[in-house]
Amino acid sequence: MYNNRMNIIQEFDTIAAIATPIGTGGVGVIRISGDKSFEILDKIYSKHNLKAGMISHGWIMDGEKEIDEVIILPFKKPNSYTGEDVIEVHCHGGINVVRNILELIIKNGARTAERGEFTKRAFLNKKMDLSQAEAVADLIHAKTQNFAKKSAKNLSGVLGKKIKEIRNDIFNVLSKIIAGIDFPEDVAEPEYDYLIQEFEKAIDKIDRILASAKASNIQRQGIKIAIVGKPNAGKSSLFNTLLNVERAIVTDIAGTTRDVIKETLDWDVAITLIDTAGIRNNEEVGKVEEIGIEYSKQSADEADLVLFLYDAEKGIDEQDKEILDLIKDKNHIIIANKCDLIKDRDPNTFYLSTTTKEGLDDLKEKIKQAAYNFSVEDTEFITNNRQQDCLVKCRESLYQALEAAKINQLQDLISIDLKSALLFLDEITGEVITDEILNNIFDHFCIGK
């Protein structure tokens, strides 16, 4: 476990990786980190004696051959992202340019960085705690602007500070208990009423963080919305209309859609919109369409919200009722499509025309409201599954200590639960962490971060 971490910069070799997306672009960035960073650059750069914090302009050279005109950003440890000597090479963004420069850097003494290795080193060198390191990954992979903003708050240390606050409260109580046990003649054991009060306060703070756990997961992963109904109900037309692009094939031939089609929307919450094959059961259904129908049922089952479409001109028939029965236990919205073809309307029915766009704005608002209900806008803390699991286990230990205090159990035994609670909090910030957990976290990062 990494406990009472020491500065282990000297134990690392020098790594390098492309820090920008691979492809054609205006600028590409290669990052080097480690003790040999300046030495390596000195071998391949047209200028020498770089000064930390001073931007330099020159050429990357392979011997006498000019590779690319670049901007160099040099950083000296510990004043860098990783806490090590770091060089950033800003070159032109062509895929071959950045690869040629990376290969030249590796040839002169660096090795290719592993996934998340730059941020892992930043954590190990105390440039950030583990909750901030995980926020880096959340920020990179954020599907919505809203979640990116929340992730940035964690990167600034909001969650870590709250965890440390709770930890300090528990640690102070534990210190008083241990003092009373070790020096009974000089220090009195704390009153049980005091212990109960402190444990309840700590549990309440944890509950406040866990209260936003479901919303955190929804904001990170988004919600799935499946559009279901019989063939020719207008599912693909609605799918295209919501996306504002002709993504799915639309015809008046029943069974056009044979497979599920997915696209993502950013409506404050990431929405995965799913167009499905029309669900029907008759002799005209072939093998391929039958498989598509099964996928449709599976998509409806896995969705957070189902949009059920039926033909307003024909009304709800027995096949529609069978589909409704499949989704009766799901959050769903019943939509009468093709309302431009009818005159009489039921005030309790939601009407839509994917042709004239009547009712479309109201439907969008209805979907956004449903999405909002899944993900509370004012989520105070963003947490992931690992952090939530640690908080739940910490709460369980505190609850056991609370119940023990209520029956005036020996404080020596209560201290065991408090020590356990502290260990779970330390796992969140990374004060105590196993190699397996650490590697699992950073394996989900991209190379170059």
Report on the structure:
- Mean pLDDT is 85; it is low at 1-10 and 247-258.
- The protein has 449 residues and is an alpha/beta fold.
- The protein has helices spanning 37-44, 95-107, 117-124, 130-141, 145-155, 158-182, 192-210, 213-221, 235-243, 287-302, 318-326, 360-374, 385-406, 411-429, 435-442; strands at residues 15-18, 27-33, 56-62, 65-75, 86-92, 111-112, 223-229, 261-267, 269-275, 305-311, 332-337, 350-351.
- The chain contains 15 helices and twelve strands.
Computed structural class: alpha/beta
Strand order, sheet with most strands: 3-4-5-2-1-6
What is the subunit organization of this protein?
single chain
Q: What profile does the largest beta sheet have?
A: 6 strands, mixed
Number of beta strands: 12
Mean pLDDT: 85
Low-confidence stretches: 1-10, 247-258
Summarize the structure.
By secondary structure, this protein is of the alpha/beta class.
SSE blueprint and pairings:
Blueprint: E1 15-18, E2 27-33, H1 37-44, E3 56-62, E4 65-75, E5 86-92, H2 95-107, E6 111-112, H3 117-124, H4 130-141, H5 145-155, H6 158-182, H7 192-210, H8 213-221, E7 223-229, H9 235-243, E8 261-267, E9 269-275, H10 287-302, E10 305-311, H11 318-326, E11 332-337, E12 350-351, H12 360-374, H13 385-406, H14 411-429, H15 435-442
Parallel strand pairs: 1-6, 7-9, 7-10, 10-11, 11-12
Antiparallel strand pairs: 1-2, 2-5, 3-4, 4-5, 8-9
Helix pairs in contact: 4-5, 6-7, 6-14, 7-13, 13-14
Question: Top keywords for this entry?
Answer:
six-stranded mixed sheet, 45% helix, 15 helices, single chain, flat, 449 residues, alpha/beta, disordered N terminus
